[in-house]
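Throughout our pipeline, every protein is held as a single compact record rather than as scattered files. Nothing more is needed to write down the fold, since each code stands for a local backbone conformation. The record that follows is passed on verbatim for readers who wish to inspect the format.
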Amino acid sequence: MKKRVYRFFFDYEKEEAWVNVMAEQGWYLKRTMLGYFIFEKGEPGQYSYRNELVIGKNQDYYDFLESMNIEFVSKFGCWAYYRKKKPEGPFELFSDSSSKIKYLRSINRLFILVTLLNLFIGFINLYIGLGESTERFLNTGVSFFNFVVVMIMCMQILKVEKRKKGLQRELHIFEG
């Protein structure tokens, strides 16, 4: 039995938590795209899922994950999902704070790029919309949408930064 769910997340951690709740209910992720998830019915609570930004990952990395009994599930754009059987123990993609901090930096680089791109396009559309263009309402509306995306992305950047700072504090405590 398959289940198709349309659900959009701005927060990758909340998305991952939701997929794990679905797995606890016996719905195992098979495929994902932007805001679209396909699940297959199975025995509840057998798998844990993790998502990851996979920019710059090569085949050696995927082979390493496979050697750790981590199964690749789905990839869309630069995000991938993996799963591991729960009886095999806890499932973390990052074994130490330093690697997690490096990962969070790469996420923020992507978020900052998306933010700046939307800010730039938003200002261009606002400029056109305030001019004599026949599509001024469309341009102004698109500009508004771009600025909303900028605000949402800024909140995500701040959240990732806060998490990164917390890990840096922990790392400093353990090293100090």
